[in-house]
From TrEMBL:
<keyword id="KW-0963">Cytoplasm</keyword>
<dbReference type="Pfam" id="PF01121">
    <property type="entry name" value="CoaE"/>
</dbReference>
<keyword id="KW-0418">Kinase</keyword>
<dbReference type="GO" id="GO:0015937">
    <property type="term" value="P:coenzyme A biosynthetic process"/>
</dbReference>
<protein>
    <recommendedName>
        <fullName>Dephospho-CoA kinase</fullName>
        <ecNumber>2.7.1.24</ecNumber>
    </recommendedName>
</protein>
<comment type="function">
    <text>Catalyzes the phosphorylation of the 3'-hydroxyl group of dephosphocoenzyme A to form coenzyme A.</text>
</comment>
<comment type="similarity">
    <text>Belongs to the CoaE family.</text>
</comment>
<dbReference type="InterPro" id="IPR027417">
    <property type="entry name" value="P-loop_NTPase"/>
</dbReference>
<keyword id="KW-0067">ATP-binding</keyword>
<dbReference type="GO" id="GO:0005524">
    <property type="term" value="F:ATP binding"/>
</dbReference>
<dbReference type="InterPro" id="IPR001977">
    <property type="entry name" value="Depp_CoAkinase"/>
</dbReference>
<keyword id="KW-0808">Transferase</keyword>
<keyword id="KW-0547">Nucleotide-binding</keyword>
<comment type="pathway">
    <text>Cofactor biosynthesis; coenzyme A biosynthesis; CoA from (R)-pantothenate: step 5/5.</text>
</comment>
<dbReference type="GO" id="GO:0005737">
    <property type="term" value="C:cytoplasm"/>
</dbReference>
<keyword id="KW-0173">Coenzyme A biosynthesis</keyword>
<feature type="binding site">
    <location>
        <begin position="13"/>
        <end position="18"/>
    </location>
    <ligand>
        <name>ATP</name>
    </ligand>
</feature>
Length: 201
């Protein structure tokens, strides 16, 4: 792919959405792995049909949509089921990501993925931008946003790549400890830099 691709990631509650929404406002195409992950199991898809065949009808509601919480519970309790679902979904998600990256029409394109590094999606990217906050901030923001327990957030943080490793793999780091204005100023500088890099590609 000749287009300049920026991978954007960060731990839960770091502000990935705020960052990617701001970059999108600058006219840059965003490919969101979370959105694609939902699309590949939407009603009528091959992905959902396989899930129903494997887990049974109890993982879908009356309208035929996937009940994510039920599937998550099944997968969480059974490592074999987790392996099975990853084997099914990762290739489908990756295929869609690549298709959307190729279709993007902007100066550069951003691939937003919480598990960019964990799932090896950084291999598709020219640079990796990490939105970084400390763990206390992650806990506070996620609890407030999702109304979930501290334990639940801690379990999610523990399941993600650890902060030092994430920072080591980053080409660029934006600290999101401050307010949105501070975040946007850092992103403005990087956006100008990425436009230059994209023009050279």
């Amino acid at each position: 792919m000749s287009r300049f691709i920026l991978g954007l990631t960060g731990g839960i509650g770091s502000g990935k959405s705020a960052a990617s929404n701001y970059i999108a406002e600058q006219g840059i195409a965003i490919v969101d792995a979370d959105v694609i992950a939902r699309d590949v199991v939407a009603p009528g898809t091959e992905g959902l049909a396989e899930i129903i065949a494997h887990f049974g009808d109890e993982v879908v509601d009356a309208s035929g949509a996937l009940i994510r919480s039920k599937l998550r519970q099944r997968v969480f309790e059974n490592p074999d089921d987790k392996a099975w679902i990853n084997q099914l979904l990762h290739p489908l998600i990756r295929e869609q990501i690549i298709a959307q990256l190729e279709q993007a029409q902007s100066a550069y394109v951003v691939l937003v993925a919480p598990l960019l590094l964990e799932n090896g999606l950084d291999a598709l990217c020219d640079r990796v931008l990490v939105i970084d906050v400390d763990e206390d901030t992650q806990l506070a923001r996620t609890q407030q946003r999702d109304s979930v327990s501290k334990q639940q957030v801690e379990a999610i943080i523990a399941a993600q790549i650890d902060r030092p490793t994430r920072l080591k793999k980053a080409d660029d780091v934006v600290s999101n400890q401050g307010d949105l204005r501070d975040l946007y100023q850092q992103l403005d500088r990087l956006h100008a830099h990425y436009l230059e890099l994209a023009a050279q590609k």
